[in-house]
Structure of Leucyl aminopeptidase:
Amino acid sequence: MPLTFADPSAEAIPLHLVETEALDSFLGDLPPRAAATARTLGFSGALGRSVILPGEDGTPEMALVGYGSASERARGRFHTAAAVPALPEGVYEIASGLPEDAAESEALGWLLASYRFDRYRTQGTIAAQLKVPAGVDPVRVEAMATAEALTRDLINTPASDMGPEELETALSDLGQEFGATVTAIVGDDLLAQNFPMIHAVGRASPRAPRLLEMTWGTAGPKLTLVGKGVCFDTGGLNLKPGSSMGLMKKDMGGAATVLGLAHMIMALELPLQLRVLIPAVENSVSGASFRPQDILTARNGETVEINNTDAEGRLVLADALALAAEDPPDLLVSMATLTGAARVAVGPDIAPFYTGDEDLAAALWAAGGKASDPCWRMPFHEPYEAMIEPGIADLDNAPSGGFAGSITAALFLRRFAGDCRYVHFDIYGWQPSPAPARPKGGAGQGARALLDALPAALGL
């Protein structure tokens, strides 16, 4: 669903963002009638509060939206969006109170507050529209908002309607929109073309596994995005308990986020060569399931001992990363809802990432704050390499002991990235409770930070 700004020619209601500490000064500058109305309605400048002040004819003359205090704003993001659902129908234009360095984030938050997942149930719509604030690039912000809506829609869709074939359709639709080329390797053709671990993970499901690929752009630096597309994860023969299986429709969140990032790149016509690789599978249970203690041989020849069939995401990513490394890009990115250990480390709101490139790490750190897309660097801790080497095979897909689960998974993936400049994101892909501009449900993480970091990372 496209999320867009109001028609720039539309008549708009002036909207003022008012900090709590500036409330008395602001009201003191208003006509006495307007100031008295604001006080009577209890407007305090608190985050999420709003009032409409009528003119003498009773029609809205201006809107006041609380912008809280600096300390309150430091504990969240998309502050203006908190008031959007309560604003009456109309077009609004921010007239004062918007810090220049927050303009893009607040504009994006307003658009994201309009998102609704209405495939299965009619949802109420947001009637308040925003004119593009001064200094904001509408094409860029609308691209980010629409990309996030795409990611959320894909994650929110249950596995009954979002299997490997439907994920292929989503990629094909995206490719068709921007003139990209999309191909798929399906079922037993994966074995014929040497993607044995993607096939092994997906072969138990009647929904055929596949490797999806999209290419776009013919000039500029090469960027390859790899997204985990496990459309549902039962855990395989190491079956998850019901309490852990409930959110497994989101286990393709890495693929959904990669599609969102690809949308932004193509919509903004970045001067680069884009390649997207998505191993799309369903990790099911049947007589064809791969088993604990099986040893699989990956595309690059590495052997992998299976010590837990519920650590399947790194297996399918490994084959895709090995393919990516055969034509080394200038930057290789993987995104996956990979480990619970990452959530224990940083919670659901932060996207941890791994890279050995100091300049890229610095760019991502800075971009996360600027793009309201918080990221945190985690270490490729070399001493833990021994933990992923079981002895009977080259690699162990699920080291015992329970320590450093996100780090060992990242080290496992790095073995397949060759000599590429590489960054891996271990995301959650889900908003567990509603927040301004972020309803409960699917959520993209890391994509906007990457978008913001790409110019520095690739010299664009």
